[in-house]
Every structure is written in C-alpha cells, then in structure tokens.
Amino acid sequence: MIAKDIMTTRQKKLKAILEELKDDGIIGISVDCVIFGFDENELKVLLIKSDLEKYEDRWSLLGDLVNNQEDLNQAAYRILKERTGMNDVYLEEVKAFGEVGRHPAARVVTIAYCSLINIRHHQLKIHANELHWHKISSITKMAFDHKKILDTCHEWLQKRIQEHPLGFSLLPKKFSLRELQNLYEAILCVKLDRRNFRKKFFSMDVLEDTREFEPDVPHRPGKLYKFNYEKYRKKERKKWFGIDF
Amino acid sequence: MIAKDIMTTRQKKLKAILEELKDDGIIGISVDCVIFGFDENELKVLLIKSDLEKYEDRWSLLGDLVNNQEDLNQAAYRILKERTGMNDVYLEEVKAFGEVGRHPAARVVTIAYCSLINIRHHQLKIHANELHWHKISSITKMAFDHKKILDTCHEWLQKRIQEHPLGFSLLPKKFSLRELQNLYEAILCVKLDRRNFRKKFFSMDVLEDTREFEPDVPHRPGKLYKFNYEKYRKKERKKWFGIDF
DNA sequence: GCAAAAGTGTTGGAAATACACCCATGT
DNA sequence: ACATGGGTGTATTTCCAACACTTTTGC
Lengths: 245, 245
Prior knowledge:
three-stranded antiparallel beta sheet
C-alpha cells in the first residue's frame, strides 16, 4: 500500500529532525489539529495511532512540524487537507502547549487548532496509522499531552458554540431543528427544552426555511433549515454582555 | 550605566542567535508580555524601545526567546520578573502569532501573554530601553506586529474581565467602588450606571467591606472593599450561559 | 453653605424558564 | 389505530435598564 510507505518515509524523516533538534538544544514547533465531527448524535474526534514507539498503543491528534516558510494557520490547513481532503472548513487556534517534557523525543512547542467538519461531506484520504473517528466520551488515555489538549479544545468548543455560530459546520447544509438541538446537547452535555430551543433560534433570526422536509423518517418529518450567514453578519452584535462571574 | 551595558550584551547575543536561526532555516520561539496597568483612570501598558535598528523609533512589547529548558509560562514569568521585579501577578496565555514575515531578522513564532499588575505596588527595575507606561488610547504604531498583539490582548481583556474576576489585580488591595467602576469603564470603553454597577457587584457577593474609608478626598469618602477570593471560589458557577450570537 | 461625590429603591420591560397538548407521518 | 417525534402557546419568574434624590465630607 502506497500510503503506508509514504507514512514510513515521513516517520523516518520526522525522527531524524527530532533527533537533530534535541542534539542542538533547539525548540521545535508543531501544530496539532483537534478535528471534531458529529455523527450518530455524538461528538467525535479524528485520531491516529502515534508514530512513536513509546506510545504505540495510544491514540494521537493529527499534527506535524511547522515548515519554515508557512504560517501557523497554513500548517493547520495543510494537515487538515492531507488527512481529510477538506479545504473549506472551520479552523481556529485555541492554545499553545509548551511544557518542557511534553514530547519525549525533543523539546517541541505545539499550537493546538480546533477544526469542525461535517463527517458526511468528506472521505478520509489516507487510512495510514488507523486514522478514524472516536467518540469523545470514550477516550481516556492518549499519546503525549494530547488528552489535555483535547479536553481544552472541547471546553473551548463548549464556550465558543454558545457565542458564535460554529455548530453549523458540523451539520449538513440542510438540517432539522432536532439535529441542531442534538448537536448542542452532545457538545454541551446538557438536556435542553425543545420549545425554548426553537424559540431561541427563531428569535435570533439566522435560520432560513428551505421548504424541504426530512426524508425517510418513520414519523412526521421535520422542516429543514439552512444557516443564513448574511443575516448573521448583518445583525448588530451587542457589545456589552454584562459582568458576571 | 550598568543596566545599559547589560542590555547591550543582551542585544548582541540576541542578534547572533537570530542570525543563526535564519541561516539554519529554524523557527525561533519567543514570548511577548502585554503588561497592563491602571493609573489615573486609564488603562496603560508597559513598553520599551525596540532593540532592532529597523524599529528604532517604535515601541515594543517586552519579549524574549524561550530557553530550551523552561516552560512557556516560566518564560513569561521570567520576563515579567526581569522587568518589573514582580512575582505575584496575574498572567495568562492569549494567543500565538506565527506569520512568516512578522519578524524581520528571522522566522520567530511568538506566544503572547497578558499580565495585569498594580502599578503602585511595583518599581520598574531596569529603565534600559526607556521602559515605561503608555496610555492604551494613545498608542498607534508599534514595532513588529506588536500593535496587533496589543489589540488582541485588549479585546481578550475586555471579554475576560466580564467573566472572571481579573480586574482586581489592577487595583490596590483595598479599593472603592468608584475605582472599580472606573476600571471597568476604562477597559471596556463604556459608561456604566453607578447604581446598577453597585447592585451587580453586591449581588455577586465577592466584595468584603473593610470598614475603612478613602483617605484624603475632598468630598464624602467612599467605603473601601477587598476582593474575597474564598467567597468567589466557593460560588457555584452556572455552567450554562445560554446560546446567544 | 456650597461643591463633589457617596449612597440608596423602584418600576417597567425583556428574556428565560417551566410546562402539556395536538399534529403529521409511516407502519 | 398506534407509535414516534414535530410543532406550538402561555403563565411565571428573573434579570436588566432607566432613572433622582438625600447624605456626608472638605473647603
């Protein structure tokens, strides 16, 4: 399998670079992508088996060293593209992780990025390293400090999704309100009142009725909506949220 | 002046390191501290003159390359200690800045930290590079991408101060409600209703009456309060803020 | 006694919450 | 006809915003 050979070459190269960094006492810089997806009413994350022997039985985030001639964002998009084949995704920096001992092979500071993609709209390009989706709820140990990074990104997402319309990136273009609510409930780990949830989104006025209905459901089909970005963009955002802690 | 000589040695060393990084095509990693203070009812930030000739007439944040054997946080605390002599300050990571061209001498990724200190409680230790406080409102151009970093940190602070009790780090231990309100107004660039502001903080139940009063004011003195961290810690925080965007 | 800021309550409106019934569809 | 989830309205409460007068102190 070609993909496998590519990865092996990569691995070797990576190992050589890390050794060089260590010998020279230089700090390496990498980007790790926490790629969230939503499927079967669960929040999921894309993971691979770690390259390092030390962590051979652990899962790891998708990361790579940053090239000298690419921005951090570009590195994040590159990693995402290489692994998922996707371009048009939501991606944002979350936090740097730079503890001295976080990488066993060398000193590596990593910038964690959070990305949201629609699982249905993409095909995993490379299945090397057993790339696949994992339920957030069932992940315990991971390689490096990746569990900490994942938890940080999940908390970031919980907060972020309430203040910005990111969630739609995880859904198909057309979705029912039930799907939207399931998404929020899964990410926030709470139960919400259906009527109040609907009221809230309708009053925010960012959804567009497609006049279509859910197909193939064994019950009354729900209306499908689209997120209307223009409406959202035009809204005057209230600047002052109110002190509360 | 000794301080000046120290800095000159430092500068030479820094320059040599940066050249080496550039020659080897290696990415350097630095920490830049945005150190906020509050004085004369204005939000201020601590700046120095840039080391680089290119930016000799511009102001710059306080930064340094990260040592191989120190965490990012440690680097930030070190910089802060070196410049202000302070240890017990609020300090938090805000964001990484890693565009390819952001540093003219080499590729350097920087992690921006935001720090809040009480101007009155510290003496600037080293006055090299014309270290001193600048009003936020009167800063226009800065060295590197430091204006962008400063703006990002200011926005971060505006948001953060409404959700967490950071603001007290900028005030003396004992403060009047007027001072507290001035602080919020200065940071948020808004005018607030005095009665509602008081009601809000009293209802949050995080202030402790010291039974002391402002001294030396040419009008009725206000009560002095302390921030009660224990009360704050014990409060049950509401997890669910409500979707709103 | 006057200037200056401290301190204090009420009210109306908006938003959040809690809650229960009928409806449309597939089987 | 029934099982399943879709869709809707109202009453209650809580929170926020707007607003003005009296009090205390220094001069």
